Amino acid sequence: MDSADILGAAKEFRRGILSGAPSDEMCFVVCAPLCGFLGVFGIESRVTEGEVDGSHHYWLTLDDGRVLDPTADQFGRTAVLLENAPDGYEEYSPDPFIDGESE
Question: Taking the domains of the chain in order of start, what are their residue ranges?
Answer without folding.
Answer: 3-91
